[in-house]
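Sorry, I am new here, but would you mind making up a protein's amino acid sequence and the tokens describing how it folds?
***
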Amino acid sequence: MSKTAPRDADDYSLSRVPRSARYHWFLIAVQRFGQLSALSQFLIGATLGFGMSFWNAFLAFTFGAVILELVTIFTGIIGMKQGMSTSVVTRWTGFGTVGSAIIGLAIGISAVGWFGIQSGVSADGLALIMPFLPSWAWSLIFGILITLVVVRGIGSMQWIANITVPIFMVLVGWAVISELSSHAISDMIAAAPAGEPISLVAGTTIVAGSFMVGAVICPDMSRFNRTIGDVVKQTILGFTLGEYVIGMSGVLLAHALKTADITQIIISSVGWVGVLIIVLGTFKINDWNLYSSGLGVVNFIDTVFGRKMNRAVVTGILGVAGSLLAAAGILGKLVGFLTILGVAFPPIAGIMIAEYFFVKKWRNDLESTKGDEFPAAAPRFVPVTLIIWAAASIGAYFVNWGIPSINAVASAFLLYLALGKLGLIRGYGTQLNNSSENKDTSTHHLEGQV
């Protein structure tokens, strides 16, 4: 792994990841599985199991996983091919630098918000089993610990994942087996759900919606992949294990214990091990929350203010701020806002995929640069894209039909594809990508590739 580690803690936040700094696919797959095997995935399974039969829950996980895999693979390929993070590559995948800045800021706010909230959840678990410190103190300790890891970059995150993922799986296996040992598998599979019924569409919505933001920011991770095959393998492996092993374990627990409150059950049954499961499960997804937040804010500062900030410094500031807000209990009041903000992410994937693979308005700008070179300029303002983005987000929020996150991706994709083929997607102005000399040459109309 040392031969592929990034050369500095900035992790190529505003440049392409060179081939020499990329990882073997299995190492990235460990981190992908770490995201998908978090406690939240366990609780999704319990939620489905409380309201669905075993086989309907299995179908919901299957349909949701297929949807997520397709979106993740396509966005992941963009990241791998271009070696850029989501917020940076969107400059040439339909959004221009203005849209890219908005995306960067949205990712920064959303990801650091969830970072703080999940740090608080883990802190509550730690305070329950180790009450010699209050929850706010554990929140600070936990948040700062993750921040120190993420500041050092993906190399440290990989090292931590290699340790925490196996331990998490062993502990989860122990907890699940301990709880289910007195129940027959056949009885749990055949058991009727104990709670309010959940339809197959609703179940699929829960599964697909739970990780759609992760699919959008997949390039943050896949830019460290080497080939398209690597992206496909890590995605299929991560989703298969995450959805079926962790998710379906939650379904079985809900059927066996007739409740969706799996967290409290695990803590009460296996004590401190249950708390350790919560901490490890949160750690494995929270490091990527903070990492993506840092990348998004670095891109925002670069495009808006023309200043190249070091990713490690920005990440450290965001991590400390998120930890302090979590300790103060403020972020717990923002769950509703962050959930609404999450509706804005799925259309980004639809637009990126439509532009990069089909419309190709600015594909040549990306492909014409050689090796690890960065494109010299990007379109500044693409108004039609911003309208499509807003329309797809609003439609997904208010239209109560189908799967909202998929509706958002599909509608944004189809709208961008149609308007792109009609020649209505146009960029206005250019912005140079030398962060020390960013200039708005708005009198020129950047056409890109037709």
